[in-house]
């Protein structure tokens, strides 16, 4: 009897703790399922610009926020800036935070987390059974505007991207939750740069003028990137940024979102539109 | 002043020179060991030196060192919003926080350890290609740097001369168009001849989404850049960066050396100083020297060293003599020379405001009468007409012709113009904002472009229009300066010129 009661009590206690843990968690993470299709990537060169198929996947509606990343660090203290191994992140990792377990001002709660390394971003995504999106997935999503899957020929689409390039960095600037695009995904442009899973496969010669005569052994595929289509240059600049990085690097403007390959038995929550 | 400074530095360097002499048994700068490249004076000697970097228009002091050294250059890339013209903001990408970037001065044979830092607040990765570097990419491939990071590479400055440096990250043209260029001087071992002033001036072309002098933050316009249609052509990165209080200064009978470069990205400069003749030009920055030059060509991504002696006091105007760039796109700077008049060389009638060009007409007396009358509130229509006549002759008559008849099919007539007489306010808008596209004047179509004349002040536009309305069979009327002022203040979207 006494044993039964204590068992019952401990079960209740566990339930309460579990509830508390859930309550302490953030709102359910919003992933949205993306309609598969194909994409003429800026990475395609002129002689081989066949569309690249994009398989079904789902993706976070918004970039990962400071609050979400703090939650991850609290559960995985090895990824705190006080404990992270130097091979996984450089010395500016999360340097905007007040401490290893405090992002500081409450107004930064819904700001996208920046100054995270590729390794940390990947670890975060694995923690929620996801991964970083591939470049093609990211580019596929980012080609959309509010109403079209591929708005890249629209000057207004390009102007929005370039407007951000003309804006000074503000570490305490806008929060996540901009307007949703065609796929229901937000903040792909105008907020931060984002890590992609295969960033180190993006070949761009550090001296971009070598396009016609790439050192093929050193930069396999470098010749593929060119500015022939001037509509592409806004996106090309994102590739230039990603190709300047190594996995441990962090910058003030670089954050991430996660993606999941579509697996039949995996259910997705629908974001609040 | 600089002579004194040079002497001081010379004194300070004596111990180093002695030290160099003691090293000379090992590496005599004069003797070349077999197989050594010209310009290679052997391994660096002495302690590493941190290069003095200066912001334009200043140039670091002469080196006076007698041996090759290791010179450390720390250059930081900063992306920052600054004024490109009064009330017009632009997001510049800079080497060292200025356009052009910091001036670097080293000695031929020096081993330069280059540290390129990219400010953590930058959004873009950047790199640097120094034309003074011998090696693939001029350093570009070795200096590709993400925001918040630093790259290092080392080169030996083998060739003396003045060299442009610039960013070479994709899209290269955009990085240059946003201000990413500067210059490095590689002094010959014996140094340059002493002068009284050395200045650093660089031309660049800029492409903004808005029109010339359209207020507010202006975005970069890739289409204009590809079409090579600059909105601004500027010396040292901003309109007015070298005029007024910021003008270059000198006294009479001084030797001036200008390191004049051209960052581009597109235009070639026809560099000229109004009222001066270059005694010497090291054209293209090379070894050959040309004397008695009026205008020297500076290629995009090139530079020259020009020297001249100041003789007569006054304001000397530095221009790109592709002259619309000077008066309609901003390529204009002032060298102000003080000193006693030299009547035997130049008689006088000095116009301190000669840089206004189209206003520097022979007889502007009626303009000053009108200006004074407007200030005291006693301006009459006749005074406006008189002043307007003079101003019209300078600014408007080139296209609309002195008799207001225009040119058939090209420039519409102002004489007896139904278009003009039917809407005076529209005329104010056109004068201020220009006019592009088809108009019908007296039954004829005109499809042309009139540039905005907003460099004229409110009084001047009011006077010109009043003159036009009361000339050549037009129906009369008076334009008040307040009407011009109101039109100028209106938001772009609803302006009458559009």
Q: What tags apply to this protein structure?
A:
heterodimer, A: alpha+beta, paralog of FGE (formylglycine-generating enzyme), 3-stranded antiparallel β-sheet, two-stranded antiparallel sheet, 8% strand, B: alpha/beta, 6-stranded mixed β-sheet, 11 helices, 23 strands, 21% helix, disordered N terminus
Structure description:
The complex is a heterodimer of chains A (273) and B (498). With 273 residues, chain A is α+β, with helices and mostly antiparallel strands. Chain A contains six helices and seven strands; from the N terminus they run αββββααααβαββ. Chain A has one domain (29-261): Alpha-Beta Complex (paralog of FGE (formylglycine-generating enzyme)). Chain A has helices at 2-24, 66-75, 118-127, 135-142, 155-165, 233-243; strands spanning 31-34, 37-39, 52-54, 57-60, 193-194, 254-255, 259-261. In chain A, the strands form three sheets. Chain A has a three-stranded antiparallel β-sheet with strand order 1-4-7, with no helix packed on it. In chain A, strands 2-3 form a two-stranded antiparallel ribbon. A two-stranded parallel ribbon of chain A has the order 5-6. The termini of chain A are far apart. By secondary structure, chain B is an alpha/beta fold. In chain B, the strands form five sheets. In chain B, strands 1, 2, 3, 5, 7 and 11 form a six-stranded mixed β-sheet that branches. In chain B, helix 5 packs across helix 6, helix 6 (381-395) packs across helix 10 and helix 10 (458-469) packs across helix 11 (481-489). Chain B starts with a helix and ends in a 9-residue tail after the last helix.
Itemize the secondary structure elements and their pairings.
The complex is a heterodimer of chains A (273) and B (498).
Chain A: H1 2-24, E1 31-34, E2 37-39, E3 52-54, E4 57-60, H2 66-75, H3 118-127, H4 135-142, H5 155-165, E5 193-194, H6 233-243, E6 254-255, E7 259-261
Parallel strand pairs in A: 5-6
Antiparallel strand pairs in A: 1-4, 2-3, 4-7
Chain B: H1 2-23, E1 49-50, E2 70-85, E3 88-95, E4 104-107, E5 111-118, E6 129-130, E7 150-156, E8 161-166, H2 172-177, E9 181-187, E10 197-206, E11 216-218, H3 222-227, E12 232-235, E13 248-251, E14 255-264, E15 269-274, E16 278-282, E17 290-293, E18 295-298, E19 302-309, E20 314-320, H4 324-328, E21 332-338, H5 365-376, H6 381-395, H7 397-400, H8 418-421, H9 424-433, E22 435-441, E23 444-450, H10 458-469, H11 481-489
Parallel strand pairs in B: 1-2, 2-5, 3-11, 4-9, 10-14, 13-21
Antiparallel strand pairs in B: 2-3, 5-7, 6-8, 8-9, 10-12, 14-19, 15-18, 15-20, 16-17, 16-19, 20-21, 22-23
Helix pairs in contact in B: 5-6, 6-10, 9-11, 10-11
